[in-house]
Amino acid sequence: MSSAERARWFSEHVQPHEPALRAYLSKRFPALPDHDDLVQETYSRLLRVSDPGRLAHPKAFLFTTARNAAIDLFRRRNVQPLENIDDVIELPPLDEAPGVVDSLERRQRGEALAEALRSLPERCREVMLLRYLDGCSGKEISERLNISLGTVKGHLLKGVRDCARFFEARGLVDAPPESKEIS
C-alpha cells in the first residue's frame, strides 16, 4: 500500500472515530492524565500495520489497539488500571507455565472464537465485541451505537446463540442437553 493510499485509508477509516475514541479512553481510563499521547501512540501502532486495507473492521481494531496501548502505558508507569471486576482474569501462578499442548489448545480456541465472531452479521459482531471485549454495558453500547437497548439485547442473544451453534457444528462443545437425543 502506497503512502498516499495509506493516508487516504487513515482519513476514511480511522480519523472519523477519533471523538468516540477519546470519549472511550476518558471513560475507560480516567486515571491517565493526557489522552492525546495515547491517541498518538494508537495511531502510530495502526500505521505500522503492514496492510491496513485488509482489516475487516478498522474501528474495532482502532479501539482494541487503543485499549492495548493504554494497558501498556499503565504497565510502564507501574500503575494499576481501574477495571471492572468482570474484566479481571485469574492467572495461574508464575511457576505453573502452560505447556505446549495448553498453549496450542488456547490458540486454537482463540482462532475458533475469532472465526465464529467473523461469521456474525457486522452490527451483531460489533455489539458482541463491545460487550465481551471492551466490557461495555448494554446501555453504553446502546448510546455508542445509537440503537435501542432492546436491539442491543437482541444482538447479544443472537450472537451468543450463533456462536454456540458454530462451536457445536464443529464439535468444539457438546450440544445443550435439551437438543441431545435420548437413546
Walk me through the structure.
The chain is built from eight helices and no strands. Helix 6 packs across helix 8 (149-169). It folds into two domains: 1-84; 99-173, Orthogonal Bundle (Arc Repressor Mutant, subunit A). With 183 residues, the chain is mainly alpha-helical.
Unreliable residue runs: 79-91, 179-183
Shape: globular
How many structural domains? Answer: 2
- Total DSSP E strands: 0
Walk me through the topology.
Blueprint: H1 3-13, H2 18-28, H3 35-47, H4 58-77, H5 100-118, H6 122-132, H7 138-145, H8 149-169
Helix pairs in contact: 3-4, 5-8, 6-8, 7-8
Short description:
This protein is mostly helical and 183 residues long. 62% of the residues lie in helices and 0% in strands. The longest helix has 21 residues.
Which key features would you list for this structure?
Arc Repressor Mutant, subunit A; 62% helix; 183 residues; 2 domains; mainly alpha
